[in-house]
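Dear Dr. H.,

I hope your travels went smoothly. While you were away I took the liberty of generating a structure for the chain from your last submission, since the lab meeting agenda had it listed for discussion. I wanted you to have the full record in hand beforehand rather than looking at slides cold. The sequence, exactly as received, is reproduced here:
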Amino acid sequence: MTRPDPVTVVVAVPGTTHGLPELFANIAVQTYLGDVDVVVVDHGPRPAIDTTALRRWWVPTRVVHEPRPGLSYALNTGIEAGTGRWILITSPDAIPAADWVRAMVSTLTHSGASLAGGRVLPQFTAARAPVLPSEVLSLFMPTQWPDIPCELEPPYALSDYNLGMPRTEGPRFDCQLASPGQRRPGHGARELAARVQRDGHLVTVVPDAVVYRRIRPQDLTLRALWRRARWHQVPISRLLRAHPHTPSGLGVPLRYGR
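The corresponding predicted structure, in token form, is as follows:
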């Protein structure tokens, strides 16, 4: 029996390994039968990650340093450092489901897609999970997903938390959109997907390749949501029209502005 192609998981980390233990623990128990290694991009002006601290997590790991600000630079550096046939991209605070790698690689292999995006679901860290309006949840992840893998089209979208691509001919992020402190429409995964499609290549949505994104109580404070809405250039008026009263679990009225 032929062994499946090796996979490299790329994760950009802003100078600390604080969020990595659970990510590594879930990568270590993937159902995928091929080799899976991790490239950790130490993303900051100076190297800050102690590589010896990563050895105890029992996942083959390499650390590369990227000093330039902007997530696009970090992810491109990680992609270039990968050695697997397939590159998967996620975040240090993501929790991959056990079948994540297998589902993503299966779709990439059989579809011939140049880019694939998996489903992102919320993982609330509070003891009692809030019930959020979709307009609030969409500040953290796409909220609409197909039932089966399909070509990317509205209303579906991709997220930097869960991407897959072939390593050799795979696309790269546009670093001209990586200016720190600025958010432009189409930044990151969405811009990448639009560019790949514009070049005539296939982009797929893989609903059974799941990662969970941690959402903490402090992420749902009034100030945090206001900042996130501005960062994503989401009209505040749209959020207010959708839920003029306090959404369950937020604990404060949703009022934005000064």
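Two observations you may find useful: Residues 28 and 59 are 6 Å apart (CA to CA). The helical segments are 20-28, 71-81, 100-111, 134-137, 189-198, 222-231, 236-242.

With kind regards,
E. W.
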